[in-house]
Every structure is written in structure tokens, then in C-alpha cells.
Amino acid sequence: xxxxxxxxxxxxxxxxxxxxxxxxxxxxxxxxxxxxxxxxxxxxxxxxxxxxxxxxxxxxxxxxxxxxxxxxxxxxxxxxxxxxxxxxxxxxxxxxxxxxxxxxxxxxxxxxxxxxxxxxxxxxxxxxxxxxxxxxxxxxxxxxxxxxxxxxxxxxxxxxxxxxxxxxxxxxxxxxxxxxxxxxxxxxxxxxxxxxxxxxxxxxxxxxxxxxxxxxxxxxxxxxxxxxxxxxxxxxxxxxxxxxxxxxxxxxxxxxxxxxxxxxxxxxxxxxxxxxxxxxxxxxxxxxxxxxxxxxxxxxxxxxxxxxxxxxxxxxxxxxxxxxxxxxxxxxxxxxxxxxxxxxxxxxxxxxxxxxxxxxxxxxxxxxxxxxxxxxxxxxxxxxxxxxxxxxxxxxxxxxxxxxxxxxxxxxxxxxxxxxxxxx
DNA sequence: GATCCACAGGAAATAGTGGCTT
DNA sequence: AAGCCACTATTTCCTGTGGATC
Length: 424
Fold this sequence. Notes:
This protein is of the alpha/beta class. The chain has helices at residues 7-20, 27-30, 61-75, 93-110, 130-142, 156-170, 189-196, 218-222, 225-231, 243-257, 267-278, 282-298, 306-326, 330-344, 352-365, 373-385, 397-400, 412-422, and strands at residues 83-86, 117-123, 173-179, 207-214, 234-237, 350-351, 389-395, 402-408. It has 18 helices and 8 strands.
């Protein structure tokens, strides 16, 4: 009986034969490794990664002007306005804000008679309540001193007082940047307290301004009116990038991060067009470009073609789904699986009641007590918000009543793959 | 125009986690 | 160790709602 040997097993056997057969001196010389020679297309990989911060901001001149206008008071030595920045993900809000903060700190240093400026940034995605964000702010402010960081367990007022103390100790202008501020939901406490710290006498020697960054414009309307007025003294809107702007950005990144001759002419325009049509996000466009290059590299080719972009689209989408599935609670995942199962057997759109039955089976498969219907409702709602599901409002009146039907809004196969990795 | 279906989703209560203070 | 405190995920109970039907 003969077994078909894999490519790598054959190589391994050959190596052993050559070495133990005495043909070569060392193991290394006999070795033919599974690693291939491949041509390096990147000159700097970081430039195309998510966390890369561009040193130059492109195609956002108008927004930078508006920003500078809003913060001019700081440079002139006045109490600054609070700023509310909004726009979808990947349109440069955070990058421009960081750039402005650096510029501001520098400018304040240069000018005579202007107080020092300090900026602290906290991402509310990781600290999704006023309380937690306040703690993070204190720790951020303490990070360049030798004071111990705060942990949870303190009462709200203790945390606030600690925060005011830190701000006061700076004796200058403190700009508090709250990124992804919509994650605070309707928890106003911090947003209410900070702008009023001065009038309430919590702070005397320093000045505070809040810069709120939000993906979601409706967040502004959810705030209580009092907070809305103070927080949104200045509003700066970041529109999505159009295809031309994305071409500029991608061209710049390609020049910094790739060898000169690796992209076919159509690649950058195609990435730009796809991203512009979808969300107008620079991050998305750059992800596409990077993955397209990776596809070519893995294939051992030296030139990136437009077909590689098509493959990249699928990969990026898959990665996105995988990441957000990871963030779901286990029961959120089961509910999603239930919908996926029904979608595969062609039973969607389905109403919550039907889905609940399938969900119970899924939970049983994972030896988990099923949650109540009410909770599954909430999970279905969450999944719709996150873009996994689409909700259809149905109303058949007296005979049928009002209810929702749900269907999958992403590729069923991708969900199954991602879930398989997740629950292994 | 009143009625009523079949839910959606709000409110309050509960259980459980993790960490600080005394 | 006991007592707080904040926070999350969940359950139970219950009110609200749009529009087809009476």
C-alpha cells in the first residue's frame, strides 16, 4: 500500500537521505526548507498598516483650517471652545486631531506669555462609561509623572476629584480628547462635569476644553440639552473621501511603502473606487491595497494586478467579520449562528420566534443553557446594529400583528468560517 | 373610528465579577 | 474579612404601537 506523500514530507525525506547518506557535511546544507525565495515588494510595511500615523495629512486642508479656527483662542491665551468632531470611520478625524494637538502644543510653547498646552487622549471604545473614561484620563495625565495609576473601585466623586487635581496641577490649558465618544451612550456625567469644572470652582489655575470625536452624528442629539450646548460650541464635520482624494492618499502611501514598479496602473484607482463607493474610508482603501500586495507576494509574483484587488476585497471583508464576531458575547455568537443556519437552509427572513427555536438548538450543541426570549431579542437588535443582520418591519394588523423579520446581511459562509475559528 | 394582533422594547430587580477601603 | 462601589448580563413583568380588520 502506498501513501501519497505531501510536498513537504518529500522534501524532509530527501534531506534525511542526503544528510545521513553522507553526501553533505551539515544538516543545513542538506536542508531544503519550505520557505520560498520571494521578492520583496514592500520598502516599508508599516506605512500600509492600520496604526500608521502619516506625518503629512492629505486632502483634509479645509478641515484643518476649521480646526485651527476653533482652537485659535488657545494660542491667543483665551479659554478655548469645546469642539465636537464627527464623521465616519477612516476619514481622518483621529489623525487630524493628533496633528492639531501636536501643532497646538508646539505653538503654545513658541509664543511668549501663553500657558503651556497639554492634550490627553482617551478612546471611549475601551472605556465605555464616564467613570471608566475619567479613570483613564487620570492615568493618562499621570503617565508622565511618577504617581501611581488609579484602578476601579473608587466612588465616582473620588475619581472626578482626582481628575480635577491632575488638571489643576498642570497650570495651563488641558485639552481632553475623547475619541469614539459615542460609546459613552447617554452617560453624560463626564461631559457635563468637565466644561463646568471652572465655573463650579473645581479648577482655578488651569483651563479645560473637551474635544469629542464621534462616528455617529445622531449621538449629539442623544445628549441632554445642557450638555449639547456646552460640548458642541464648535462642530467640525469630516465628509467621506471621494475616489480622487483616495487616489492621492494611496499614491502617497505606495510611494512611501512600496517599490516603485510593483503596481499595475489600474490598482490604485480600483482600490480608491471600491472604498469610495462603500464607506469613503482611507483605512479601508489602504487595507485593500495592502492585502492586494500580499496576495501577489504570496503567489510569488512581482506585479500586483487588478485581480489581486478582487481577492483582497474578500479577505478584508472576512477579516472585518472575524474581528467583530470576536467581540460578541458567546450568546450573541449563538444567535448569529442560528440566523446563519436558517439562512443556509433558505428560511430567512425569519421572525424572532422562529429564530429562538433554532437558537435553543445551537445553545444545546454547545452545552449552554439558552437565554430567555427577551434576551435573544436584545442580541438580535445588537447584531442588526453591528451590521450582521438586516431588520424588516412587518405589520399585518389585526390578523397578524407587528413584528420584525431578520435576515443575514453578510456572507453566510464567512460567518461559519469565522465562527469555526472562534469556537474551536 | 374602535379594536386587537403579536410582538418590541422599557423598567426594575437580580446575580455575579472585581477591586478598593477600613 | 466585611462592606462598599461600579459595571455587566440577564430575567421578569409590563406597557406601547402601527395598521388591517371589524
